[in-house]
Design a protein that fits this description.
The structure is a homodimer.
Chain A lengths: L1 E3 L5 E3 L2 E3 L1 H11 L16 H8 L10 H15 L4 H11 L6 E3 L7 E5 L2 E4 H7 L6 E6 L9 H8 L6 E3 L4 H10 L3 H6 L5 E4 L2 E2 L2 E2 L4 H7 L6 H8 L5 E5 L6 H6 L3 E5 L6 H20 L2
Parallel strand pairs in A: 1-4, 8-9, 9-12, 12-13
Antiparallel strand pairs in A: 2-3, 5-6, 5-7, 10-11
Helix pairs in contact in A: 3-4
Chain lengths: 288, 288
């Protein structure tokens, strides 16, 4: 089961867009654009070009095939279906074996507080290219949100054998999930191993504004700070070789460090890292 | 000013679609697909193919560029703009000199009564390919609809110098316009010439189900029946050479027949026919 942040979701051109869900769906369907890091490989842009001619908003790029997901999902949401159930159906149709679950079917839009005032997530991230200085983050509606039913029933049935927090932006992409009531305590009270993979390598994010945001929030952009962020929620943190020097400090926080290559350039890098994380989870599960 | 039927308008995939308005817009923008007779030339179909993969409805074809019109128009309609004002803006952006005006900004959806029960227009026309036997037509909401403000102010200011009813399906495409309160009396009380061009040539429609519907409604599919349909609303009817034999019968209805070539294969055929119709209107205006 892949639990995905929906704090980035927004309505655009009258369409419900779930960027993180779509990125995971496209990746696991094997159709994602490897160069852009979002969208569909070999995408066409007829819609976007025509929209520009008509004077529509073009700051958020929507490819022709990608658009089918937004239009069809919006139609089904308006009919009363949940984001979870639509996502499950799309995954089946795209031949995805995994269960992809949005963190919640309730809206939890991320508000980025900046020196220029509060910005909705996509305004900050796409329109403003993460340039404004971040002063805080707000996951609005999180307190009222229910975690997606698939997560709570898996928790109830004791179906989790491990949880892996992927190398993602802790503030923008993981914190919103942790803000959904029950998710943090699911990790705190776990009877299974939880492992995070550091998104920072040598103090830098491989992509995105994680290091910049940490700096702006007065944190040291380093894997040690990532360990601190997840303390109490994880057993182990996977660090890149570049951060081997931080191993002892991580261990002193009560988090087991594992040093390996975390930079994923080729598919082989991904499966290698995944295999190591799974092996670590298996060995951790055998610990008392 | 081109007044266009909106009886075919419908909501599809959560989008407001105005097929006749778009066909006229694309034609006058010089971007229409000359082979299909609808849509945009050189269109791409990434959206439609992806929608099919996702299990969406694909019986109504929406090209990638065409889709931009529907998405942007729907967004603006939901914000409270009128179809008229959006259409005017799109025309400007597409470099169209003409004023294209939907007959009304209020919904007047055509219901096709058939032997299989009532069908919404696109269900009948596209999904069922005009196959069910028509027993009647209903322009629902017509009584409450107001004619578009551009038409009523042109009428009020006496701006019309002639009205031409194009060679279109009288039952499906012209009758809905005539059903909007004020339009029929605008023609009946006119002080300017009105001319129709017969959509039937030798008893056949050049495209579409006009002849089939006339037959099903118990009418003779002929240009004479067209003259009867428009009696009291027009001064002259333009007939194809193939229907020259009907000239006297048309004249006996009080309608002046004009015989010419009405089959438009090449752009030249169109401008020739248009020039003749304009010349006829000019000469008719000089009559007492």
């Amino acid at each position: 089961m892949v639990v995905v942040n929906t704090g980035d979701d927004f309505e655009h051109l009258g369409l419900h867009i779930s960027p993180d869900v779509d990125t995971v769906v496209y990746a696991l369907a094997g159709i994602s654009d490897p160069i852009q890091g979002w969208g569909i490989a070999g995408e066409t842009w007829g819609f976007m070009r025509a929209l520009e001619t008509l004077g529509g908003e073009t700051w958020f790029q929507l490819g022709d095939r990608d658009l089918a997901v937004h239009v069809e999902r919006t139609r089904r949401l308006r009919k009363g279906e949940t984001l979870s159930s639509i996502t499950t159906d799309f995954c089946e149709r795209l031949g995805i074996q995994h269960r992809i679950v949005p963190m919640s079917d309730d809206p939890v839009p991320t508000i980025v507080r900046t020196e220029e005032g509060p910005l909705s997530f996509q305004d900050y991230f796409v329109r403003r290219r993460s340039e404004p200085v971040v002063t805080g983050l707000e996951f609005s509606g999180a307190e009222q949100a229910r975690m997606a039913e698939a997560i709570s029933s898996a928790a109830l049935c004791g179906s989790f054998s491990a949880i892996v927090i992927c190398p993602s932006n802790p503030y923008l992409s993981i914190a919103p999930i942790l803000a959904v009531p029950g998710v943090r305590s699911l990790l705190e009270q776990r009877r299974f191993p939880a492992i995070a993979v550091s998104p920072l390598v040598g103090g830098r994010a491989l992509k995105g504004p994680a290091a910049k945001i940490m700096h702006e929030l007065g944190k040291q952009p380093s894997a040690l700070e990532i360990a601190r962020f997840y303390t109490g929620l994880i057993d182990a943190l996977v660090l890149d070789h570049a951060d081997a020097v931080l191993a002892d400090s991580v261990r002193s926080l009560g988090v087991t460090p594992m040093i390996t290559n975390t930079i994923m350039r080729e598919p082989r890098d991904r499966s290698d890292l995944a295999a190591q994380v799974v092996a670590l989870a298996r060995s951790a599960a055998r610990l008392p």
